[in-house]
Amino acid sequence: MDLGISGRTALVTGAAGGIGRHTTAALLDEGVRVVMSDQSADALEEARRWLGERASAPVLVPADLSTDRAAQDLARAVAAEVGDIDILVNGAGITGATGPFHEIGDDDWVDVLTTNLLSAVRVTRAFLPALRRGGWGRIVYVNSEDAVQPYDDELPYCAAKAGLLSFAKGLSRSYADEGVLVNSVSPAFINTPMTDAMMDKRADEEGTDLDGAIASFLEQERPYMELGRRGRPEEVASVIAFLCSERASFVNGANYRVDSGSVATL
Description:
Blueprint: E1 9-13, H1 18-29, E2 33-37, H2 41-51, E3 59-60, H3 68-82, E4 87-90, H4 106-134, E5 137-142, H5 155-171, E6 180-187, H6 193-206, H7 210-221, H8 233-243, E7 255-258
């Protein structure tokens, strides 16, 4: 399907991760010029090698986004490389501290909220002028099932994602009349380095291997994932690419769940 975005320019944050690099691949294949940003320059280089030879190569701009100044610096660097962007995919995120609520301190909460919520706010603020100048824009936030179905051992992450979902919905009301549409994608248990780390820890605790940990997690913690497997990052990327496209010209303020049915409510 032609998504109608050939020639557009996109920024993907958190681009070195599983969903980020697959989103980059999907956009490049649609003829979009893509800037990849992440904390580690080495991780970005590895992601570029993973992408292989395509019609155009992504531009790499490392940034940690821990401060508003860093986000503004990223905006200036991107503008110098490619000019104004048309598409912003906010994919930066971490699981952060997990465990019982009484064992998680302020620093842990600040770390997760800064990375998962405030970095998206900062990047959006930094790039909004470019999106508004173009008169056509797409902003997509990579969220999580945890935004609407919180788990008691991941409360900082859940709270940050709920805040991000509310922010995206509110923002979708602000600039739609200027052509800037805002949506979210909420995956559940995708095969990425983030969930690999979770499952490696679970495997150690249970005295099993990775496959055993995944199986027990699905049975005990995610019983509504009807397909009985981890999602593939490209399955999330395809939905993100659609929301970035001209095909999604009447989609605004939506949250697309890519979760195999994991969220149990309407």
